[in-house]
Each structure stands twice: as C-alpha cells, then as structure tokens.
Amino acid sequence: MRHLLDTTDLTVEEIDGLVSLALDIIADKQKYAHVCDGKKLATLFFEPSTRTRLSFEAAMMELGGNVLGFSEAGSSSATKGETVSDTIRMVSCYADIIAMRHPLEGAPRVACAKSGVPLINAGDGGHSHPTQTLTDLLTIFREKGRFSDLTIGLCGDLKFGRTVHSLIKAMCRYSNIKFILISPKELSVPDYIKTDYLEEQGMEYAETQSMEEVMPQLDILYMTRVQRERFDSEEEYLKHKDAFILDRDKLKTAKSDLTIMHPLPRVNEISTDVDDDPRAKYFEQALNGKYIRMALIITLLKWKDVVNDTETVVTQPKITVTGAKCTNPRCISNVEDIPHEFKLTDKKGTCRCIYCETKAN
C-alpha cells in the first residue's frame, strides 16, 4: 500500500506515469467513468479549501465513486480533542482512500502511520502540497511539452508557500532547470529547501526582489499570494501583502510563450487585467488539478493491495536526538503527544524533524 505525503515519495518514472494517465483521461473521459464504482473517498479538511477539496470530490465522482468527509475542523471531533491518529483509524473503517488537509505541519505523516487505506496529503500547513505540485507538473507539460530546460520564476510568499516548496523538490530531479526566487527577504525560501534540495542537487538558482529585472528570462512565472493565515500578526501581514503585483505593464518585457501560473486563490497579486492574456494559465491549471487527482486516485487504489517491496513507501531512517525538540510551533510534534524524531539529511550530520523538516538545534 502506498501513501502520498510529498512529491519525493514518487519516482520520476511514477510522476511521468501519472501525467500520462491524466492526459489519457483528458482524451477519453468516458473510458474512466466507472473505474471507481463502489469506492469511497474521504475528504478530511481541517483547514479551509475550495479548489483542492472540490477537485478531489469531482475527481472521485467522475470516476464513478462516492465521497464523504468534512470541510472544516469545526465539523469534526477535533473540536472535542480527538487526535489525528484516532481520526484516521476511524475514517479508515469507512473509506477506501483518504485526502487530508491539516494546518499542522507533519500531520499527514502521523496519519499515514495509522491509516488502513491510502492517504494523500492535501496540504499540511506551510510545509508541503504534493497534489498541487502534480497539478503544476501536468500544466507545465501541457504548456511546454517538457520538464527540462526551463527557467522558472517563483514569486511572492516563498517562506510559507507550501506549493513552492513542493514544486522545487519535484523540479530538482529534471535537467537544466534554473530557479529565480522573487520575494522580500522576510519571505524567502526556507534554508532547508536551499541546502537540502537546490544546493544538494546542484541546481542553479538566484534570489531577487525585482520581478521586472528578471521577467525577460522566464519560461514560467509562478505567482503566489502572501498568506494572511500563516502570519503571527496582522501588522506583519500588511507589511508584505502588496510586495509583488503582476499587471499588464510588467509583462511588456516577458517572452511571448511565457506561462503564468498560480495555485489560487489569489488576492491582489495578479491584476484581473492579466486574465485575458493568452499566457495566463492559472484557471486551466485549476482544471488540470481534477485530472491529475483522478489519475492519482486510480493509481493509489491499484497499488493498495500490492505486496511487493518495490511498491512500498521508502521511509527515512529516524533517529532520536537526546533532549532535542522541534522548534517549529506549527509542527504536529509540538501539539500532539508524539515522539520528537529526526532524520539525517546530509553528510554534515544535519538533523531535521521528520514531520516538518525544521533543523534540530
């Protein structure tokens, strides 16, 4: 049985297979209309969502399956103090596959250890969002026809933007990729993404605070919103919320075949006057999310009963660092009663929390 917690759980070949399956679904939807007859998807959304939750539900229904679940933590027994582990054990009794979003980073990792069915991470705090990344990859392939030889600009909140973190991890495995990281210093990509992925994989990257300066270089511009819900204070949010706004004027120097992407929702970081530009692909991107999630549901259910060492999740070796605790207040290990465990991430002996990837002190 397989779960999807992070894009790195999938090999490049498996990602290519999911993209190919999604393309086949797009070409012949009727062919897949009954592949999940009698199956149930549980959508457990402890945090608000529109696109992700509805695209999962639409995906399962278009495959012939059924959906049950909740759309906010207030509708679950979490309000009574039920742990993630207990919730997942219970829901596993009622569903064939689970998609879970949670505000605590690492919650899906705790959940999958107790789940009796395949579990999909639909976003955990500011940490990871693998199905959005699969959506992004399908969009990139449909627009560019390749995953290599691309200059990708990532703009906005790169610190808390889990979609950015997941996309970087995925694209680091392809050749001749250059990342340009466009953000205020206070919202720059976390150090672990730079050291453990960009630098470890020898990726070319640059950091800048000017969108206009790098616009002519970009094949893809991936915009993100500044996320009010991730800030500790309203004052800090207001300081950064208007840092980067894409409008028609800023696109004057862009390539004619630039692809503009955004995981949505947007606030004001893309002006509505960009929507009619043929390079704007964020609404097509949202539709692609349904198709790639259809492909993922089919694939995980197919793998569910496979008993084969090559088909199991490769787990990171865990170690206990005496006296160490994760310093991330948004990590599930600081909220629920679970062990503080870490993993070695490089030859220098760097230890990071297995749940949120925060460096151990």
N-to-C span: 34 Å
The biggest sheet amounts to:
5 strands, parallel
Number of DSSP strand runs: 11
Strand content: 5-15%
Low-confidence stretches: 308-315
Q: Mean of the pLDDT scores?
A: 90
The helix content is 25-40%
Computed Rg: 20 Å
* Overall shape: globular
N-to-C series of helices and strands: HEHEHEHEHEHEHEHEHEHEE
Helix run count = 10
Order of adjacent strands in the largest pleated sheet:
7-6-5-8-9
Structural class: alpha/beta
Quickly describe the structure.
The protein has 361 residues and is an alpha/beta fold. Helices cover 30% and strands 15% of the residues. α5 (130-144) packs across α6 (162-171).
Question: How would you describe what is shown here?
Answer:
The chain is α/β, with parallel strands linked by helices and 361 residues long. Helix content is 30%, strand content 15%. It has a 5-stranded parallel β-sheet with strand order 7-6-5-8-9, covered by helices on one side. Strands 2-1-3-4 form a 4-stranded parallel β-sheet. It has a two-stranded antiparallel ribbon with strand order 10-11. Helix 7 links the parallel strand 6 and strand 7. The longest helix is centred in the last third of the chain and has 22 residues, at 282-303. The radius of gyration is 20 Å and the shape is globular.
Which structural traits does this protein have?
single chain; about 350 residues; five-stranded parallel sheet; four-stranded parallel sheet; 10 helices
